[in-house]
Amino acid sequence: MLLGVDVGGTFTDAVLVDGDRVTTAKAPTTPGDQSEGVAAAIATVLDGAGAKPGEVTRFAHGMTVGTNALLERRGARTALVATAGFTDLLEIARQNRPSLYRLCEDRPPPLAPPELRIAVDERIGPGGVVRELTDAEIERVGDEVDRLGLEAVAVCLLFAFADPAHERRLAAALRGRFPGLHVSASSAVLPRFREYERCATTVLDAYLSPLLGGYLRRLGERCREIGIPEPLIMQSSGGVTDASSAAAGGAWSVLSGPAGGAVGAGLLASASGGGDALGLDMGGTSCDVCVVESGRVGRTESREFDGRPIQLPMVDVHTVGAGGGSIAWRDRGGALRVGPRSAGAEPGPACYGKGGTEPTVTDADLLLGYLDPGGGLAGGIELDREAAEAAVGRLASELGIGLDDAAAGIHEVANQEMVRALRVITVERGIDPRRFDLLPFGGAGPLHAIAIAEELGIGRVLCPRSGGVLSALGLVCAERRRDTTRTVSLSGAELTRAGIAAALAATREGLDAPADATLEAIYELRYRGQSFELPLDGPLDPDPAELTEAFAAEHERRYGYREDEGEVELVNVRLAAREELSPFAPPQASAAEPRRSRRRARFGNDVETIEVVTGNPGARLRLDGPCVFELPETTFLVPVGWSAAVDRIGTIVATREGAR
């Protein structure tokens, strides 16, 4: 039995796979200690499957511990130890303004403030050691660390990516003197050039690791009490690793939650579509979008999170604050806005009846007739229509409009937030969204999907049977993955087959992977004099001429020109080791007949009678809109002009009239 548990902003989702049987469950997320909600979700899904804890053979887990700690700025008390003259690197950054026309807007404060920065009297340059690191200096730095009362230290010395000797000595000395102190060394976290990004990523790693380590220790204890295996942790890269490795490198799991959903989207895009889809994961707090091509989600090597750069491999996900719990409000100009503030798990939307009083997207969907006020939601949530009317009614009064108009406006504004996010990852990158399917998931995604598809000109929407818990399902079928990177800087006479082989061998030294793992290589190249590189997939023994030609072709495709006389430089090498843990194929749809009913719902300015299908529909069921599919963990809304058919694995495939 394979178990996956994903922690969201509102609910914690669990999936248990036993051969061709899939059991799902939800439990409220417990923000104070996420492991409590995880344990509750595990107990619920095991009970639903009639299974015993000892039957679980693997447990994969995705979480938001690191994400929340960054957003709420409650990580460890962290110091930056840097080469003398470079301790203010975090403050100086890249000198670019966060917002071009807001001259007073500042960056978020550094995770290591000025009073927690220690200068080291040493220096390594591009040609080797300039000033030796002495034992006396190491002792002095240790005394400073002792005086400051720290939980974590980030060591980032100049040119440590090329020669890590000083950094390794200093980090080892600090670990030996302070056994309870977490020490992150840039030569281990990110051995590549660009000082600011390397420093910022290392500090972030140190800032998050103690908190993540504490959480994983508590979760491990709960697993032992329950009697299930220690969890494998989803990393931002879309692969899992063991809990001890995850605890030692907090920066690698910042996007742990969204990564599971991206992996699940890739699985379902191949099983029910052509493999090309736009993933739309709308939960209770936020919405994550991604591009899936040929069944694989895109990855990136760098992104900003909360205004801070993270230079590590991660799934290419874009996030906006539009979820079912996103709060609707009136801005100073009188306009209706939705998010980014959320009602979260506690108290949740007003209609949850847990004390919430502010209007949310879920409240609006209930008032529009898209949700059944008598049916409740997954996780044991009973819906309170009167509380939703009171919350949305107060906002309607502020806006000077009717209750139904306010609800419709909240729904539409939330849709536009998600359309904007999808345009960022498609149109703004030269990708035509019309050639993709839209694959919505999360508890709220399928309710909004078709309106978003119409806005983008997409003609087909795939709603997975387990769409409400697809992130947890993605955890079950994730591979084990290890990534590393290294700056090699080869050009001219050095860019030879032997030179590349030596660079690959040196890079692989930092990759703790078994001999039978599948290796993937990515080469980052540029023309000499350029500031940024283009990544290219390639073989493990590339021919330099073929590599430079592939780079020139990709450069021409991206930017419209190539420099055949220009000198090409191989700047960085990235390696990934992949291990498939167990093959997973989505089970066939059941032949059970779901319950049918009718109710009234609003579409635009019209109120329609819609057919309601409750339960998992059997294969080959077909309906024309308007209709609603009330699945165990989510609700799929199909308006007029669309038809829906259930495929062999239970995915509801909705197609627009006249679409190809």
Please describe the topology of this protein.
Layout: E1 2-7, E2 11-18, E3 21-28, H1 34-49, E4 58-62, H2 65-72, E5 78-83, H3 89-92, E6 117-120, E7 123-125, E8 128-131, H4 135-148, E9 152-156, H5 165-177, E10 182-185, H6 186-189, H7 195-226, E11 232-234, E12 240-242, H8 243-248, H9 256-272, E13 277-282, E14 287-293, E15 296-297, E16 299-300, E17 303-305, E18 308-310, E19 314-315, E20 317-320, E21 326-330, E22 336-342, H10 361-367, H11 385-399, H12 403-425, E23 437-441, H13 445-456, E24 460-463, H14 470-476, E25 480-491, H15 497-508, E26 518-527, E27 534-538, H16 544-559, E28 568-579, E29 595-603, E30 606-614, E31 622-624, E32 627-630, E33 635-638, E34 642-646, E35 652-656
Parallel strand pairs: 1-4, 4-11, 5-6, 5-9, 9-10, 13-23, 30-32
Antiparallel strand pairs: 1-2, 2-3, 7-8, 11-12, 13-14, 14-15, 14-20, 16-19, 17-18, 21-22, 24-35, 25-28, 26-27, 26-28, 29-30, 31-34, 32-33, 34-35
Describe the model.
- Among the domains are: 77-193, 3-Layer(aba) Sandwich (Rossmann fold), CATH 3.40.50; 480-579; 595-656, no CATH class.
- Helices cover 31% and strands 28% of the residues.
- It is built from 16 helices and 35 strands.
- By secondary structure, the protein is an alpha+beta fold.
- Helix 5 links the parallel strand 9 (152-156) and strand 10 (182-185).
- It has a 6-stranded mixed sheet, with helices on both faces. Strands 13, 14, 15, 20 and 23 form a 5-stranded mixed sheet that branches. Strands 6-5-9-10 form a 4-stranded parallel sheet, with helices on both faces.
- Helix 2 crosses helix 7.
- The protein is globular, with a radius of gyration of 26 Å.
- The protein starts with a strand and ends with a strand.
